[in-house]
Amino acid sequence: MGVIMVEAEKRFSAPLHRLPSLLLFLMLLVFNCFDDLGCGAQKLVEEEVTALRLVGNKLGKKWDFSADPCSKTAGWLVPASTKAFASNVTCSCNTTTKICHVVSILLKGQNLTGVLPEEFANLTFLRELDLTRNYLNGSIPRAWASLPLTKVSLLGNRISGRIPSELGEIITLEELVLEDNQLQGSIPVALGNLVNLKQLTLSSNNLTGELPDSLGNLTNLTDFRIDGNPISGKIPSFIANWKKLQQLDMQGTLMEGPFPPTFATLESMTEMRVSDWKGGDGKFPPLQNMKSMEELVLRNLSLSGGIPDFIGQLTNLHVLDLSFNNLTGAIPSNFEDLQEIKFIYLTNNKLSGTIPDWILTSQKHLDLSYNSFTGTPAPSDCTGTVNLVSSYSSTDNDSIKTCLRRNLPCSGKASNYNLFINCGGDSVVIDGNEYEADKSTQGISAYVPSDNGKWAYSSTGDFVENEDESYIATNASVLNMIKPELYTTARMNPLSLKYYGLCLQKGNYTVNLHFAEIMFTDDQTYFSVGRRLFDVSIQGKKVLHDFNIAKEANGTGREIIKSFTTVVDGTLEIHFQWVGKGTTVIPKQGVYGPLICAISVTPNFKPDTGELSVGAILGIVAASCIVILLIIILLWLWFRRKNAANNELRELELQTSCFSLKQIKAATNNFDPANKIGEGGFGPVYKGVMPDGSLIAVKQLSSKSKQGNREFVNEIGTVSALQHPNLVKFHGCSIEGNQLLLIYEYMENNSLASVLFGPEENRLKLDWQTRHKICLGVARGLAYLHEESRLKIVHRDIKPTNILLDKDLNAKISDFGLAKLDEEEKTHISTRIAGTLGYMAPEYAMRGYLTDKADVYSFGIVTLEIVSGICNTRRPKEDFVYLLDRACVLQEQGNLLELVDPSLGSNYSKEEALQMLNLALLCANPSPTLRPTMSTVVSMLDGKTPVSIPSMKHINPKSEELRSESSEKIFHEIQLQSISMDELSVDTSVSVHSIEECPHHSLVSKHHSDYTQ
């Protein structure tokens, strides 16, 4: 019953007992109709219904508009909402006017895949917007600033770009949660205007710069989190203004100490997590007045000196983490008074003295490993709820158990020489090696040796937010690998995980670490937006920093094996450590920290096994020689039978995998025409599906083209040596008889040409951040080819059809059939011109003068196309020869921004657009000497190097037309010459559809239509 019902009951309570029961029932029904939503008479205003339709279209949310959005029916209000899931639209209705307005939208855990809609701004009464855990992209619309919002949560999406300063105009805002996205730039000064703000959560983004002083105005703040961002600067003193602050999380940033003395005034603090900074004075923060403190994490802050006694007076503490510091002295005696404590982590310090008896008999979880304790009697065991591994300073005192001593010395003869561990899983045999089971569930503060004594692990940390408290991960993604047995499980840890190889023979070893990201998925759900980052050290030396398994393996559910060599004399230590970075609540709270699937350690020397006699060894050697000789003879006979057309292939040193023709036929359904996705000059391109479900693109070389054979040799020789996130990944090849095949990764979003200029069904509306990301990706790929790879390579054919886009619209360069190695000499004259007119540098098209600056020119043209949405090779009206010509004219007129694609509207940064256009003109300078290198281009796009304004004179149409005709003539002559020499250039792009550089069906804005006619 509503308020009106209650008032009616009061008003009519006296005479009600005299009314017939039927009349009483009807009156109650009538009164009940005046509840918030009425009896169907109240209705949402039409303007907001229209806004919801637009919002639903952009979000990919299928609402049922046959029912009124305020009816609480037909899916507009789902009663079974949880902390992780909600699908609710809530209205406020005027019972007099019967007009309703949307005041709250909760769409949590919906896996929505659309773009963040600007149209929310049309819901002018909206106070709460929660889009937690979806797959939304785009940037935060500035138009939202007009709304009377009190709560905004975009946690767990793919939102990019900067935090708009306009959010500082929403002075009603009390909660702003932008955690686990891809936001960049600095925190806007304008956020300091949000004086009613209680919660500001910016964790796990890519925010930079220092905390603005204006945040000191947020005196109502109770929860502030910036962990997992590269924010720099010192801890600001204005934090003392936040008297109501209860939770502070600053883990994994680039900030520096010391803590300001004013910290002592934050008496309301209950949770404080600060970790992983450098610098400071090593002093403890003044926490003595924080009597309500329940969780205190001061990890890896270079704190020195003794542990202050006031820590033992914080009697409400549940969690205390002071690990990885330089603390000295004894454990304070008043720690025994911490009755509420559950976890104490003091690992990796320099604590000394005797370990108190109450700790040795405690049933709570304590980690004192890696310290310098002394005294007797020493504990008799290293296992239990107290982790004491390597906690004593002694290395040779036989009265102290081996596992307690520093560096875990071997108590007997070092007889082991290899290790194979299936971390978190059962015993399994792979390639003849038995990977031992590792199924212990201990992990909070534990030292767990193997049954055979060959290895052990030490685990520190608790997934406080995760009630499961599981330290073994099980596969949640599709495993795209040939031998998945090692990757169905993994051991994980929220802080520090160490594996030890015990009693290993002295010598040089190869350590293989087997990783696969099995807790995130690779689909379009919020399960795929998680990021796991951690460090790896071997024998105390860091070998991997901010290691991201999924990024290194090019996706989830894919294995990546990292190999290292190290010298071992007794004990091998492999350390996996979380340093506060990456996401922590995707797909649920408590999913972060290091994860390892398997470990193998093999000797690089002849181990002392004590088993084989000299005669047996000689017999094995002799037999091996005979087998090798037979193999050599068979290979020689096989190569002799190959036809002469494959000579070049035989001489090529392939650095790639080989597939059988049978495998490829199965993947493409015997090259079914239905799977054909393109046609190059050498032959068709097919889409294939491997047995594990992964998609591939297969280039099939035509058996009629000797030239295609040469292109095949060139391309396979080039790409097999290249591995970079912005190059299309080369999986391998197949060479059987006359069948020559290249196998690449499949690119879901086709080519840049298709996205910008293709038919309507292939085009995508690219926002400004995505265009910038594509330019930066192409630049990084070219910088790798020119300057970073072992082979210095000039691509020679950079154009939109050779830039492919994956499912996240990351740009990847393809088609190395025309690529040329940049040999010893820095420049050379090419007698064979290869490329595409409109994108070829003038010095190369006219004179055959080829350097890596030719690719820089092509990049400049492509950048102009990306910003403008106009194809360079479509000739417009006679005023301009082509897009570059028009750009030069607009630059001279000071109207360069007229070139920006009108479809962007106002949703782009004019400053960034002008910088990118100037950079494009700088790259397209007629003089190759004045063009920047690609590494400089990357630095400019990253904002690390300013973009100078290029000086380019307007190109006269007549002279340019003559130059184009001359270029075409030269190109035609070289083509004729190349045909006679079987050296004709071909387009070997791999994409979803084969299209022209600028398709006739391009749909661009009417303002630019003259460039596509």
TrEMBL record:
Span of domain Protein kinase: 671-948
Enzyme class: transferase
Segment forming the signal sequence: 1-40
Stored SUPFAM superfamilies: L domain-like, Protein kinase-like (PK-like)
Highest taxon of source: Eukaryota
GO molecular function (one): protein serine/threonine kinase activity
PANTHER family reported in the protein's UniProt record: LEUCINE-RICH REPEAT-CONTAINING PROTEIN DDB_G0281931-RELATED, PROTEIN KINASE DOMAIN-CONTAINING PROTEIN
Nucleus among keywords: no
UniProt keyword list: ATP-binding, Glycoprotein, Kinase, Leucine-rich repeat, Membrane, Nucleotide-binding, Phosphoprotein, Receptor, Repeat, Serine/threonine-protein kinase, Signal, Transferase, Transmembrane, Transmembrane helix
Cell location: Membrane
Gene expressing this chain: LOC105041309
One Pfam family linked to the record: Malectin
EC number: 2.7.11.1
Organism annotation: Elaeis guineensis var. tenera
Protein name, UniProt field: non-specific serine/threonine protein kinase
Recorded topology in the membrane: Single-pass type I membrane protein
CDD domains: STKc_IRAK
SMART domains: LRR_TYP (SM00369), S_TKc (SM00220)
Residues spanning the membrane: 612-639
InterPro entries: Kinase-like_dom_sf, Leu-rich_rpt, Leu-rich_rpt_typical-subtyp, LRR_dom_sf, LRR_Rcpt-Like_S/T_Kinase, Malectin_dom, Prot_kinase_dom, Ser/Thr_kinase_AS
Gene Ontology CC, one term: membrane
Gene3D superfamilies per UniProt: Galactose-binding lectin (2.60.120.430), Phosphorylase Kinase, domain 1 (3.30.200.20), Ribonuclease Inhibitor (3.80.10.10), Transferase(Phosphotransferase) domain 1 (1.10.510.10)
Catalyses which reaction(s): L-threonyl-[protein] + ATP = O-phospho-L-threonyl-[protein] + ADP + H(+); L-seryl-[protein] + ATP = O-phospho-L-seryl-[protein] + ADP + H(+)
Iron-sulfur among keywords: no
